[in-house]
Design a protein that fits this description.
Purple Acid Phosphatase, chain A, domain 2; 5'-nucleotidase,  domain 2; 6-stranded mixed β-sheet; 13 helices; about 25% helix; globular; 3'-nucleotidase activity; hydrolase; nucleotide-binding; Calcineurin-like_PHP
Length: about 500
């Protein structure tokens, strides 16, 4: 029997070369160009094998380069197709962030892409894949392998409704089970490429995150007839054989390549780090002219904010607030007229601002194309939302620390908000659900029955990361993405001075 090798990347997020766009820092330990080299090397030593190469989603969004293409140079969107062809992907999958720029843009990027697999996101009218096809069969020397492509069905919980208009997000587990039943008599092996991850530990089966329908990898593995599973979305680096079925999840930004081997003998799975690989020269040549334009755009100064907006202690900033997060909240409140605002320090790479702020600083701090939504919450709901935020912290050995719930299976710092317009006391020594007290708004005690307008980004407004929020509570929405709002605010207020916020009183 011919041996089968499945190579994959996932969640490249527009990082095509080893540049994270921050200055003066420059991270060179990742990038599609390095992954392409590893893939090419693996193909060269696989002469007796059927090799299938998979790009597992979240390819066209996530970096200043992708934002520039969407906002400033949409005619360059064919770059994604040219890069995919250069790497030699046989299969491409839709990621959840593929929808961030809207359905029209997505369909433009993937127009007539014969490698795109999409079995579970359907057009409401036709009940067929709105783009792409459900599966593809590969053959070598009489061996037939089917690859089924599916995407997390949880996208409507995060995405703006206008970006997913007239689409149905079917359960990938049901879709795959039905396709496997049809395909099994026709093929020798079935591989599932799923832009989603695992909500259970691969060894113990214990839940490692809330058991929503966001990460259904474990359920997909349990389908009889599935021989291998390529995953993504969680940005984890995984390679295991689970009950005889190999799985991979190849990290983030092209920092790993997943390798699955199927043969008559024991199947295997591994990930290969790309940091030491040389960059593929063709990938670099394709990207470099546009990178030059992007860097000129990013280096435009937009304002001055003083000397206290650099984030040097992310934990303290999340616990006590920070002038940087206060600035973002002010931007959000001015843009919407809301009296209360909340925003997150997305990850520990966020550095805040130096005194002179450029577009680069804004784009490398606010990395998502979020827009704003104003949500009407009762006073009781505001307190409940604050209590959920307080769950980010634990109290251990007489000190506050980050709860493991927000670190595993992947860091979720983006789900902890820092609030403005509301003052409260936080006591982490108390049980969860009882940590928030003395809540005031505008100097008055919060009224449990009165509704208050709270502005958050559209991701949070839908309930992602804090279940108090929900789409049905949204009273109005903005259309301009937050990064642009920040740039506009800085240009309108070219010299800003913000002191350390004092609205959170942490009990020692």
């Amino acid at each position: 029997m011919v041996q089968i090798k499945i190579l994959s990347t996932s969640d490249v997020h527009g990082y095509f070369t080893g540049d994270d766009f921050r200055r003066p820092l420059k991270n060179t330990g990742f990038g599609l160009a390095r992954a392409a080299t590893v893939i090419e090397q693996e193909k060269k030593v696989a002469t007796e094998e059927l090799v299938i190469t998979i790009e597992n989603g979240d390819f066209i969004q996530g970096s200043p380069l992708t934002d520039y293409i969407e906002k400033q140079a949409s005619e360059e969107a064919d770059l994604y197709q040219r890069l995919a062809q250069t790497v030699g992907y046989d299969v491409r999958i839709l990621g959840n962030h593929e929808f961030n720029y809207g359905r029209t843009y997505l369909e433009k990027v993937f127009h007539d892409d014969q490698t795109l697999l999409n079995a579970n996101i359907l057009d409401k009218t036709t009940k067929r894949s709105f783009i792409g096809r459900p599966y593809q069969i590969f053959e070598k020397d009489g061996l037939k392998v089917a690859v089924i492509g599916v995407t997390t069905q949880y996208i409507p919980h995060w995405e703006k409704p206008e970006n997913i208009k007239d689409l149905l997000f079917e359960d990938p587990v049901n879709v795959v089970a039905n396709l496997v039943a049809d395909l099994r008599p026709q093929v020798d092996k079935i591989v599932v490429a799923y832009h989603g991850g695992f909500n259970r530990d691969l060894k113990s089966g214990q839940a490692i995150e809330p058991l929503t329908q966001e990460n259904q990898g474990t359920d997909l593995l349990e389908i009889e007839g599935v021989d291998a599973l390529v995953t993504g979305h969680q940005h984890r680096t995984l390679a295991e054989v689970v009950n005889g079925k190999p799985i991979t999840q190849p990290g983030y930004r092209g920092d790993h390549v997943g390798v699955i081997t199927l043969s008559d003998q024991q199947p295997s799975a591994k990930t290969m780090a790309t940091a030491t690989a040389t960059e593929n020269s063709t990938v670099v040549a394709l990207v470099q002219p546009l990178l030059n334009q992007v860097n000129q755009w990013l280096d435009q100064p937009v304002g001055h904010v003083g000397d206290n907006m650099r984030i040097t202690d992310h934990f303290s900033a999340r616990l006590h607030g920070h002038p940087f997060t206060e600035l973002i909240n002010r931007v959000q409140m001015e843009a919407t007229g809301a009296t209360i605002s909340a925003n997150a320090i997305f990850n520990d790479e966020m550095r805040g601002f130096d005194n002179t702020v450029t577009i680069r600083d804004v784009m490398t701090n606010y990395i998502y194309p979020n827009t704003l939504a104003v949500v009407a919450l009762t006073g009781a709901e505001v307190v409940s939302a604050l209590e959920q935020n307080a769950n980010y912290f634990d109290w251990q050995d007489g000190q506050p620390t980050v709860s493991s719930d927000y670190l595993y299976p992947k860091p979720a710092h983006f789900n902890e908000d820092i609030w403005s317009g509301v003052e409260y006391t936080l006591d982490l020594k108390k049980p969860r659900g009882q940590r928030i007290s003395a809540v005031t708004v505008g100097g008055q005690g919060i009224d449990p029955q009165v509704k208050y307008e709270v502005v958050v980004n559209n991701y949070r407004a839908g309930g992602a990361g804090n279940s108090v929020f929900s789409h049905d509570k949204i009273v109005r929405e903005g259309q301009t993405d937050v990064a642009q709002l920040i740039v506009d605010y800085l240009r309108q207020h070219p010299k800003i001075s913000i002191n350390q916020p004092t609205n959170v009183h942490v009990v020692n």
